[in-house]
Amino acid sequence: MVRAVVGAAIVDDLDHPTRLLSARRTEPPALAGGWEFAGGKVDPGETPEQALHRELIEELGVTVRLGEVVPGPLADGRWPLGESYAMTVWWAVVDSGVPAPIEDHDAVRWLTAEDLYDVPWLPADLPIVDAIATRLR
Ligand SMILES: Nc1nc2c([nH]c(=O)n2[C@H]2C[C@H](O)[C@@H](COP(=O)(O)OP(=O)(O)OP(=O)(O)O)O2)c(=O)[nH]1
Predict the structure, then answer these.
(1) Whole-complex ipTM
(2) Is the pTM above the cut of 0.95?
(3) 131: phi then psi, degrees, rounded to nearest 5
(4) Whose CA is nearest to atom 4 of ligand 1?
């Protein structure tokens, strides 16, 4: 069974995004230093949206408003993350708080279309970043 993961493409504006938030992982060692979408695994008893809101409060200290799903190639628009995980990614904007690397990350960075690929994204995230890049102005 593929495990469900949720992630947020946090941008400055849902209708006219110009900046995307990326976060640098600290764990596990094989993934540490890679940049990703904040989020994580859906726990038993949670909806995917509940899981994402929980993870964003824990990891970045923010509440968000979710937009549409960034549609991926798998069933339900999910994106493959290797063999074991599939991630649903929502567009999101910050409702309250300032994103900070509270847990699981040691840096966050807002990226524009110009410097979107200047950070070493986790390899599985690159097709997702490509999809987002088409919307960043
Ligand atoms: N959150 C997140 N995980 C990603 C991304 N890209 C990617 O390959 N992954 C992988 C890393 C992990 O193997 C898996 C998600 O696990 P996670 O470690 O973020 O989940 P979690 O916060 O619930 O972690 P834990 O409680 O089990 O330690 O998906 C991404 O953009 N965001």
Answers:
(1) 0.96
(2) yes
(3) -65, -40
(4) 36
